[in-house]
């Protein structure tokens, strides 16, 4: 594979001993609207309370053994919401970056925004680029915000990028394998998620990390996202740690007696 295509082998991305390395936790932050409705408040206030929950969770994550936190902030399907709600969510991303970027940078957090850039307003694209540029050399913790993100869109975009490399004569169809394909996804810089959490009691993926979820543990919590924080994160990690990840093999305990 030629260096000019940007296609690279990332087959080692999921490596490492699960008990010693830091975790990649991904969260579908759901339930802002219901949280507000229960209080007789407009949905926008639920989203604003959701930003505070995000701040609490980001703050708590490193001390709980999390090295990468990926949160679902806006899906490619969320454009179907009323225009004022879409604009509230866009404004919240901007406000979050404006208020927290300096502190995140100081604390060694690398910020990455995953998802489609096209379709976002120029001021949002600019703020995303600023956040990524400013924190690019930070290594203590990674915060990935999935924004205008859809798992299917990301897979389709990766497929198109590979097809274009073939059209340019920089790659051959036979070069395509899982590692190459994965390198073209917007999540390629991080290891695969160890656990995907969804709040609010819903038990579905809603187009989040479709490729990356292959061997993630799924944890569903009833808590509405604006009520989330260190305790709920700790409960999710405890549940994850109790799982036996087999990756298609057999349990470690059974290896000795298997043969
Ligand atoms: C999650 O809360 C935030 C986004 C999807 C942007 P919701 O807005 O989906 O809240 P519910 O599901 O209606 O309660
Ligand atoms: C998923 O939640 C998207 C985000 C949390 C950003 P939704 O609330 O949009 O998902 P559905 O519609 O309940 O499946
Ligand atoms: Mg929802």
UniProtKB/TrEMBL annotation:
Record carries keyword DNA damage: no
Job description of the protein: Catalyzes the condensation of isopentenyl diphosphate (IPP) with allylic pyrophosphates generating different type of terpenoids.
Keyword Cell membrane: no
Swiss-Prot/TrEMBL cofactor(s): Mg(2+)
Active site: 30, 78 (proton acceptor)
Any Pfam family the entry gives: Prenyltransf
Taxonomy, superkingdom: Bacteria
Alphabetical keyword list: Magnesium, Metal-binding, Transferase
Cofactor note: Binds 2 magnesium ions per subunit.
Family: Belongs to the UPP synthase family.
PANTHER family: DEHYDRODOLICHYL DIPHOSPHATE SYNTHASE 2, DEHYDRODOLICHYL DIPHOSPHATE SYNTHASE FAMILY MEMBER
HAMAP family: ISPT
GO molecular function: ditrans,polycis-undecaprenyl-diphosphate synthase [(2E,6E)-farnesyl-diphosphate specific] activity; magnesium ion binding
UniProt: substrate binding residues: 31-35, 43, 47, 75-77, 79, 81, 198, 204-206
Record-given protein name: Isoprenyl transferase
Residues bound to Mg(2+): 30, 217
Transmembrane segments: none
Gene3D superfamilies: Decaprenyl diphosphate synthase-like (3.40.1180.10)
GO CC terms of this entry: cytosol
Oligomer and partners: Homodimer.
EC number: 2.5.1.-
Single GO biological process annotation from the record: polyprenol biosynthetic process
